[in-house]
């Protein structure tokens, strides 16, 4: 479990195909690897990956074909920056919202509107995710916990403060670039519970 508060801007070092549509990815992140061990979880652009090995500030992780197909990780190349966050500790503050690191779909940046102190960014939504996105609700974009400013049938917008623009990949991504999206898990549970009630599964 994560909070969507990016700890470090890391970098893809290499990606080695391991057969069967999978890869072993090496990622540089001195901060997140400072206490990382085999089996720990680190979110990479919002995707929960399991640490296989750590060596000199670089950790490696296996990325399965399912993950490559359902996220934007497959489009990353050596040298690309990535948002990194270690799994949340039970005694830490919840600065963002509850983030699982399980990507629901890939969206894309469709517009950027710079302002004096912030920037408004609009993202396209994959079919089926719009019902989980509400104004002033939470959403995770490339691992960053954000508040939805506006929401439409196939899009939503957020306001990015200078800190987010400077310390995450969202500051440098361009129109047309893909992003990993994870909607608020609470919305999915509510939908399931209400659906069961309508079908007579709950009283």
From TrEMBL:
Gene Ontology molecular function, alphabetical: riboflavin synthase activity
Lumazine-binding repeat locations: 1-97, 98-194
Catalytic EC class: transferase
Reaction(s) catalysed (UniProt annotation): 2 6,7-dimethyl-8-(1-D-ribityl)lumazine + H(+) = 5-amino-6-(D-ribitylamino)uracil + riboflavin
Pathway: Cofactor biosynthesis; riboflavin biosynthesis; riboflavin from 2-hydroxy-3-oxobutyl phosphate and 5-amino-6-(D-ribitylamino)uracil: step 2/2
One matching Pfam family: Lum_binding
Leader peptide range in chain numbering: none
Keyword list, A-Z: Repeat, Riboflavin biosynthesis, Transferase
Superkingdom, natural source: Bacteria
Domain Lumazine-binding: residue ranges: 1-97, 98-194
Function text: Catalyzes the dismutation of two molecules of 6,7-dimethyl-8-ribityllumazine, resulting in the formation of riboflavin and 5-amino-6-(D-ribitylamino)uracil.
Stored PANTHER family: RIBOFLAVIN SYNTHASE, RIBOFLAVIN SYNTHASE ALPHA CHAIN
Annotated protein name in UniProt: Riboflavin synthase
